[in-house]
Amino acid sequence: MSPPGMLCVTMQPKPELPAAQFHEWYNNEHGPTRLRLPQIFTNGLRYRANDGKEPTYLAAYDVTAMSHLETETYTTLRANRSPREAETIGQVQVTRYFWDLVAAKQSPLFLPIEKLTNDEAEGTVLVVVQLELKEEADAEAEVVKWYKEEHLDMLSKVPGWLRSRLFKTSSLETGGPTYIWGLHDYAKENGLGGEEHKASMATPWRVRVTDKYANIKDRRSFSLFYAFGPAPRDLSSLSQLPAATSSFKAADAKTTTTNDPKPVIDSYVTTADGLSIPYRLEGNPDPKAPVIAFCNSLLTSLHMWDKFVEILKAKRPQYQILRYDTRGRHAIPSPVPVTLDAVSDDLKSILDALRIPKLDTLIGVSMGGATTLKYALKYPETLSKFIACDFNVASSPANTNAWKERIAVAESKLEDGSPGIKKLAGQTVERWFHPDSMKKDEVVQWMTTQVATNDIEGFRYGCQALWDYDMKAEMKNCQVPGLFVVGEGDGKGALVKAMEGFKANLGQSGAELAIVPAAGHLPMCENPDGFWTAVEKFI
Question: What SUPFAM superfamilies does UniProt report for this protein, alphabetically (predicted)?
Fold first, then answer.
């Protein structure tokens, strides 16, 4: 069986290549594309030299089995480079290394670096030692024996030591010499160069190994500066690109980036069951900026928030903004009913893929409001506060029957042969909107088009998240502060009464209920200024 190992790449950009172009390409295209192959790559880490030597940059990918790097799944990534990648990589001196894992030792407190937050991981040190074997028949065995029986144990006594791994040149690289590689992970604060470290380098056994069996060909030291996942998120580098040359669209059109006029990333996350969820990331490009996320209602897209997001970006420029299409908007990988647990897990998957450990605020409406409360109940440690709008904490049999009737309309054919979801769109918007909103033709058409373009099967199974749920008992134990918001005309005022009835049951002290005038079921769409007034003190 093929061993696990590592793909390691050193890079030295040419002086004429702008740093922002190099990093934006790597962080938003090159790296995430590989991390979308979890069967091959378990992580992707970028390091910058701290020893003053070149190459300056190193990227390290742990590989589940080295034979995967010979499969078409991987080789086509390099064969089908985007024009931008080809243009950028042509300005970088690149050396690739393929290594088979031989031995490993780690601290009892060690956590894989990709499991750390960005703040925790940034600055961790990687020492890379290259050993060139001498022409002795048992040279490799003797070097490995010394590492396993003495050197790794002595290194583990160095303050700040986290992990040591021993690799050798992979069997994938035939015809060349075999090298031994030691990779040693240390905390930001460590004892490199101290007494314990010096002792590990001065034993009689080490002297014998370096005299007879191997030369230390190179020793490099790097600091981690970026860990990426399968979802591009680097607004910072994107924001530094000239607007005229910043736009990029992937070959599958599922990822686009631009800094014209402001940095925006549109891409997707794939869930464990194969659902592709589009998302948009924008706002403050600082990688440490607090994040506000939005959950849209059933039958709408992430664009239902467009008008309100423009207000938010102007009023609260300190935030990064994340939107995504809720499960049910698009085709689904398997025809199974959706639950509130499933849609809250979807959000957690998105945050994990973007390496966002905690949201500042989560805002949701309708099914997105129910999702928001469920998420706050299920993942309280990842959320500071939430705003749940125009929703109920429990379903009812009457509501379930109504959804079944709406499915029948969506799946029917109209007299002109067009899908019945067009009819459902008109009915839905009229039911949702306040009478004043129905006078705004542009807004009505905007929302009707969103509903009419929903995937029909996605709707059929997505709406079942609202069929059978009850959070009344759970919400009493909610640990996350929340604000409830409702349009004054939602359900002709019935939902105002319903939300007034359960607002006191949230957590220890209940929640305030803000009522948006001249709005129905989607107040942030119908009266975005009124919605801002309702939430501005909470955000």
Answer: alpha/beta-Hydrolases
Class of the 5-227 domain?
Answer: alpha beta
Mean pLDDT within 241-257:
94
CATH architecture of 271-535: 3-Layer(aba) Sandwich (3.40)
Three-class SS state of 36: coil
pLDDT given for residue 519 in this prediction: 98
d(CA 497, CA 456): 32
Tell me, what amino acid is at 390? Answer: D
Range list of β-strands (E), 23-68: 45-49, 57-63
The alpha carbon of residue 325 and the mean position of all alpha carbons in its chain are separated, in whole angstroms, by: 14
Query: pLDDT tens for residues 300-357?
Result: 999 999 999 999 999 999 999 999 999 999 998 888 889 999 999 999 999 999 999 9
pTM of the model: 0.96
The H or E element spanning position 208 is helix 204-212
Q: Which amino acid is at 56?
A: T
Q: How far is CA 299 from the centre of its chain?
A: 24
| Residue, of 432 and 174, whose pLDDT is higher | 432
The owner of tokens 């031989």 is 102
Q: Rounded to an integer, what distance in angstroms lies between the CA atom of residue 291 and that of residue 293?
A: 6
User: Each residue of 353-400: pLDDT tens digit?
Assistant: 999 999 999 999 999 999 999 999 999 999 999 999 999 999 999 989
Cite the residue boundaries of each domain of the chain with CATH code 3.40.50.1820. Answer: 271-535
Contacts 24+ apart (CB under 8 A), 168-173: 168/99, 168/100, 168/102, 168/140, 169/97, 169/98, 169/99, 169/100, 170/5, 170/66, 170/98, 170/99, 170/100, 171/66, 171/100, 172/66, 172/67, 172/69, 172/70, 172/98, 173/98
Does residue 468 have a pLDDT over 80?
A: yes
Q: Which residues of the chain form CATH 3.30.70.100?
A: 5-227
CA 432 to chain CA centroid, Å, is: 32
Report d(CA 521, CA 141) in Å as an integer.
71
C-alpha to C-alpha distances, 422 to 410, 411, 454, 523, nearest whole angstrom: 7, 10, 10, 23
Helices vs strands, H then E, count in the chain: 21, 18
How confident is residue 78, by pLDDT bands cut at 50, 70 and 90?
Answer: confident
According to the model, what pLDDT value does residue 2 have?
A: 87
